[in-house]
Amino acid sequence: MSASTRRSGVLAVKVGMTQEWDNWGARLPISILWVDGCKVVQAKTDDREGYTALQVGIGAKREKQVAGTQRGHFAKAGVPILRKLAEFRVTPDAVLPPGTELRANLFVPGQYVDVCGTSIGKGFAGVMKRWGFKGQPASHGASLAHRVPGSTGGNQDPGKVWKGKKLPGRLGGVRKTVQNCLVYKVDAARNLIYVVGQVPGHKGNFVRVADAVKKAFEQQPMRPLVPPAVGQGSGVATLDPNGRDPYDFQD
Amino acid sequence: MLQRLRHVACAVRPAVVAEMLAARQCQAAWAVQGLRGLQTSTPAPAPAETSTLQAEAQRLARPKGRPSMPWTPTQELLKRKTYTKRMGHMLEVLERERVAQIMKERKIPSFGPGAVLELKLSVPENKRRTTVFKGMCIAMSNRASRTTFTLRNFIGPGALERTFPLFSPHIQDIKVLEERPVRRAKLYYLRKRVPREYRVA
Fold first, then answer.
1. pLDDT band at A133 (very low <50, low <70, confident <90, very high)
2. Interface check B88 vs A, CB under 8 A
3. Locations of Basic and acidic residues compositional bias (chain A) (predicted)?
4. A11: which chain B residues are within 8 Å (Cβ-Cβ)?
5. Whether residue B23 is found in the same domain as residue B97
6. Between residues 18 and 47 of chain A, which touch chain B (CB distance below 8 Å)?
7. Same domain for B132 and B176?
């Protein structure tokens, strides 16, 4: 694995949130992600498709739930029928053959990942929730306006409301990425990834987990290019490898 | 029942009666054998505690009717519930396991509201020096690894209430001094009472 390599990510299912105390005694909010049988379905190459990517899938579906074309697509790769498919752009040296299983041990405790998922839908949200507007006073004579947007622009100049004006509308239910989540723990036997912080979506939703794009090769620990053997790679991260105590307040 | 049949069968031909009796007896015999079969079947092996490869292989090799571990890949399940249900169950199992692990590493006594405790705490902000905090437990919130309890005491100028996570690594020792009788899960009424009722010396 070199500095220019871009590995594939995995698809996972959000299990929920819990907490852990790290080796310094600080409390960490943890999101648990479960890699439910992630398999490579197709390898896209530069000469055929014009770009290099790996199509991976997770979950399961019954035969009667898919059309013949999809059944053939999975049969060609030699994988069972999968529920969710996604592509991960990779560099040519990180291409894996169809049928390869990607497990949680692809990620190393102590590395950073980007987790991408569909955020929880909030419906038609008002301007205070959607854009963080401050609203109007609750009393002191404010008439019929407590949570409304207020003014939407100037007068005759410009004589219109600018496009993209922040107004109420649908909030949530869209694809969101949380970047630079620290992988706290990896349970290789059970295919679980414990990640510090929040992850978009409800429990039971699919998420994409990939190496952080905003972390340089030197800032991340050594990660495997070829998926390691089943059962290997479990571990817990010890935070702050320099040994700096987070409770050591310097005056 | 066999007696009644014999009585009725007196009027019918003996060969037919014999056949019917034999059939009934066979049925009875099968029923008894079935019961015996249930009694003598060996119970299924208990699920392994560790998450090693061998344990996983054992779990997967179980006969199909048995419930499987929540992290069994969906591709290996015959009957599937929705992801939301399965993840809720998995989270419960993982949290319970974590609590069991912590309880094995540390000795934490069991107590509830009404218990008077003495805690030895390490204060990380003060170079991890050990302090003592005494108080009466007025509330206990049971949430697996996030379980917290609130202690109340009357010290010096005023009352002092402090909430601690039960499994926090900063709590070095919990000693239960006494158990005061209470009839509530949350003793917030003590906030309106005289300090004598909840003060710990």
1. very high
2. yes
3. 242-251
4. none
5. no
6. 18-21, 24-25, 27, 32, 34, 36-37
7. yes
Whole-number Cα distances in Å, B137 to A79, A107, B150: 56, 43, 6
- Separation in Å, CA of B94 to nearest CA in chain A: 9
Confidence of residue A231 (pLDDT cuts 50, 70, 90): confident
**Into which CATH architecture does domain A10-121+175-229 fall?**
Beta Barrel (2.40)
For residue B86, what are the domain limits? Answer: 75-105
Per-residue pLDDT, A51 = 97
| Beta-carbon separation of A205 and B94 below 8 A | no
Contacts of B168 (CB under 8 A, 6+ apart): A21, A25, A27
Over residues A186-230, the pLDDT tens digits come to 999 899 999 999 999 999 999 999 999 999 999 999 999 888 888
Of A21, A138, A189, nearest in space to B98 by CA: A21
CA pseudo-torsion sign B136, B101, A37, A117: positive
8 Å CB contact of A13 and B87? yes
Q: Provide the ipTM.
A: 0.89
- Cα–Cα distance between A111 and A113 in angstroms, integer? 7
pLDDT digits (tens, 9 = 90+) for A35-91: 999 999 999 999 999 999 999 999 999 999 999 999 999 999 999 999 999 999 999
Q: Is residue B109 within 8 angstroms of chain A, CB to CB?
A: no
Per-domain boundaries in chain A: 10-121+175-229, 124-152+164-171
Task: Extract the tokens encoding B142.
Answer: 């049971």
